[in-house]
Amino acid sequence: MHQLKKLFTFIFNHFEEIIVIICMFGIVILTFIAVIARYVFRMPIAGADEIATYMFLWASLFGASAAFKYNKHGGVPLLADMLPANLRRISDLLVLALTAVFFAFLTYYSWRFLGQSMRVGQTSPATGIPVWMVNAGIFGALAMCSVRCFVAIIRDLRGMDRYPTVPVSNSIISEENLDKKI
Fold first, then answer.
1. pLDDT score of 143
2. Is the pTM here over 0.90, yes or no?
3. Transmembrane stretches, by residue range (predicted)?
4. In whole angstroms, how far apart are CA 125 and each of 26, 29, 112, 122?
């Protein structure tokens, strides 16, 4: 039971990264195979570009959710930087709450859009993939964005760091150690 809980915790904590890795790996492999098939064997793969586009859409949306999870999304804190520390915290929480509500709003309407696309039964032109499958990824990514914003608010109100630290590997070459001899 403990191992199952550990697995679910890992999946929840790294859901976005797992989806992004799968999509990016799929894009690279599919595009490589499509290029080889087209230019070496003169047999193009129908729909390869369409599937790669869908994977790119999912990767970018789930990547946005991962950015919210680690506080690596874009922002312009010009006014907030001028506030005292206690007011800045309140301002940041307010912006985070508004962002969470906005993503919850988008999640609700993407859920409705997903239901509509399931009822209509539309399929993609080149591969025949049901469009609702693509829309399910949009719904999932927006839902995760709102969840990550709400989690950051809860963590802040509990006195914890809002965002977990970004995982770092010691084997990655960074700008700081480029000049160092390995």
1. 96
2. no
3. 18-39, 51-70, 90-111, 131-154
4. 20, 22, 22, 9
